[in-house]
Amino acid sequence: MGGREGYETLLNTDLRQEREQLGRFMQMVVEHKHKIGFQGTLLIELKPQEPTKHQYDYDAATVYGFLKQFGLEKEIKLNIEANHATLAGHSFHHEIATAIALGLFGSVDANRGDAQLGWDTDQFPNSVEENALVMYEILKAGGFTTGGSELRCQSTSVKVLINMICFTVISARWIRWRWR
C-alpha cells in the first residue's frame, strides 16, 4: 500500500469487501515474502487523501487497526511522511510517536507540505524544532533498525544544495545540544 488505496464515494463501495480483499492481498504479500526468503521490511506509506477522497491508510492508528484485524501487525511496518501526517490533521511528531508506540515504525520520508494547500507538495523540511522532535523520538526508541536516513534534494542549484546541507547540520547539532 502506498497512496492509492481508497474510494471516492460510498455509493459504489462495499467497505467490508474492500477491506477483506486488501487484507487478503497483504497476507499474500507476506506469505510470498517468506516463501522466497526475502529479509527486507514491508512498508505501508500512510496517506489520508489524494488521489482518492478517503484512504484506507489514513494514519498510523488506522493502519494498526487494519493490520491487527488481519494478523499482519508484526509483519509490516510504516513509512511516515511528514506532509501526509499534516494532511491527516496530525503533527509529524505525533505520527512517529504513534508508530513507535504501536511497534510499527519502519522508515521516514521527512518532507513537508504547505499547510494551506491540502495536498502533497513534497517540499524540503525547514522546521528545525519539528524535525528535532521527530529525531528525538526515533533516537529514544533505539534509532533506525531497518535502514537509515538519506538526504534527497532534487535541485541542481548549488545554493539550494548548500542550504539543505546547512539545515541538516544545524538540525543534527540542535538535537545533540537539546537532548544531551
UniProtKB/TrEMBL annotation:
Reaction equations catalysed: alpha-D-xylose = alpha-D-xylulofuranose
Molecular function as annotated in GO: metal ion binding; xylose isomerase activity
Location relative to the cell: Cytoplasm
Single biological process term from Gene Ontology: D-xylose metabolic process
Gene Ontology CC, one term: cytoplasm
Enzyme Commission designation: 5.3.1.5
Enzyme class: isomerase
The family this protein is said to belong to: Belongs to the xylose isomerase family.
Self-association and partners: Homotetramer.
Name listed for the protein in its UniProt record: Xylose isomerase
Species the sequence originates in: Escherichia coli
Biological classification of the source: Bacteria, Pseudomonadati, Pseudomonadota, Gammaproteobacteria, Enterobacterales
Chain's gene name: xylA_2
